[in-house]
């Protein structure tokens, strides 16, 4: 088994990692408008060793195919090429951001790296020295390469975020547009008939009768509910069930029917149910219909602004980023399947 593992490891290192033993970490695998992407950066992002370790723990047969056959090696090479393509796009994002005057604060990036590192150390109960040792033992670099990867990730994320803010800043919605959306999409704002209810639940008819006597004697329904109700949904809220829509399943059909034919302010009960005895007070009622525009206007504004922002972002990608990428000078030196060099 050890020989098989060593053979697979050598095969991966020589073919998938494009001869890391002969190509140093500083070897350039691609250039993007004169900016180099090194083997070290690609290996850090692809993290093939960790990927193989995870695959081996899940499916040993698939792992053997990957490390012991040329087809498997080519598959991993294709994966590594896709990672390189993503890195190229990230470099392009950073470059176009710089052309747009987007600047990412290095201090903010360092703070984000520190926060993320501390979160990782706390999660696993490690020190930085522990993490450095673990990364080296697992073949995943060291603490410095870990921090470098975080710096790059956060730099790209912040660049994208700042570009999006700039591109979508013109996304605005007028009241007329909001009202038009409301009128054209009334079904989104349909509301079922509902009643606002207070409820008391007890385990015997005797307790229910006593609770009802207290209410009829002038005590507040909510106070009695707080004192005696065992209802898990409403006891902590002084019996308040809030708005209950017809057909919600929260109340049995028989009791629900009584509630919706009774007027606002009515007290119903004691009513026997499968969990004991219940008393209801109808605080308010709402007919079937539609939510008022004024009640949903903020949600409409938010929805339409997000929609416009997405359209502006997609337009920017199609009309700015893709042409920038197509006009860029991109040279790729990573070997493709069959040993051919990509250009």
UniProtKB/TrEMBL annotation:
<dbReference type="GO" id="GO:0003755">
    <property type="term" value="F:peptidyl-prolyl cis-trans isomerase activity"/>
</dbReference>
<keyword id="KW-0697">Rotamase</keyword>
<protein>
    <submittedName>
        <fullName>PpiC-type peptidyl-prolyl cis-trans isomerase</fullName>
    </submittedName>
</protein>
<dbReference type="InterPro" id="IPR050245">
    <property type="entry name" value="PrsA_foldase"/>
</dbReference>
<dbReference type="Pfam" id="PF13145">
    <property type="entry name" value="Rotamase_2"/>
</dbReference>
<feature type="domain" description="PpiC">
    <location>
        <begin position="192"/>
        <end position="284"/>
    </location>
</feature>
<dbReference type="InterPro" id="IPR000297">
    <property type="entry name" value="PPIase_PpiC"/>
</dbReference>
<feature type="signal peptide">
    <location>
        <begin position="1"/>
        <end position="19"/>
    </location>
</feature>
<dbReference type="InterPro" id="IPR027304">
    <property type="entry name" value="Trigger_fact/SurA_dom_sf"/>
</dbReference>
<dbReference type="Pfam" id="PF13624">
    <property type="entry name" value="SurA_N_3"/>
</dbReference>
<dbReference type="InterPro" id="IPR046357">
    <property type="entry name" value="PPIase_dom_sf"/>
</dbReference>
<keyword id="KW-0413">Isomerase</keyword>
<keyword id="KW-0732">Signal</keyword>
């Amino acid at each position: 088994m050890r020989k098989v593992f060593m053979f697979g490891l050598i095969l991966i290192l020589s073919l998938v990692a494009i001869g890391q033993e002969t190509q140093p970490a500083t070897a350039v695998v691609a250039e993007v408008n004169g900016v180099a992407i090194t083997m070290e950066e690609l290996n850090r992002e692809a993290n093939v060793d960790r990927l193989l370790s995870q695959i081996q723990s899940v499916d040993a047969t698939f792992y053997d195919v990957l490390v012991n056959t040329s087809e498997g090696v080519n598959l991993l090479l294709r994966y590594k090429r896709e990672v390189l393509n993503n890195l190229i796009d990230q470099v392009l994002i950073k470059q176009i951001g710089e052309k747009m005057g987007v600047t990412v604060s290095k201090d903010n990036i360092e703070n984000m790296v520190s926060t993320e590192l501390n979160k990782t150390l706390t999660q696993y109960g490690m020190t930085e020295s522990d993490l450095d040792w673990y990364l080296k033992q697992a073949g995943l670099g060291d603490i410095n390469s870990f921090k470098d990867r975080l710096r790059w990730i956060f730099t790209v994320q912040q660049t994208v975020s700042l570009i999006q803010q700039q591109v979508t800043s013109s996304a605005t919605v007028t009241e007329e547009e909001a009202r038009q959306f409301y009128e054209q999409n009334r079904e989104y704002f349909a509301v079922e008939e509902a009643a606002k209810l207070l409820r008391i639940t007890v385990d015997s008819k005797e307790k229910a009768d006593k609770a009802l006597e207290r209410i009829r004697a002038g005590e507040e329904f909510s106070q009695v509910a707080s004192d005696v109700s065992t209802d898990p949904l409403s006891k902590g809220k002084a019996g308040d069930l809030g708005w209950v829509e017809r057909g919600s399943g929260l109340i049995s059909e028989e009791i629900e029917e009584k509630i919706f034919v009774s007027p606002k302010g009515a007290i119903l009960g004691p009513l026997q149910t499968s969990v004991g005895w219940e008393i209801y007070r109808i605080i308010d009622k709402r007919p079937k219909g539609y939510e008022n525009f004024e009640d949903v206007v903020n949600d409409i504004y938010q929805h339409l602004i997000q929609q416009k922002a997405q359209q502006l972002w997609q337009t920017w990608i199609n009309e700015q980023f893709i042409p920038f990428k197509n006009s860029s000078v991109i040279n790729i030196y990573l070997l493709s399947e069959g040993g051919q060099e990509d250009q």
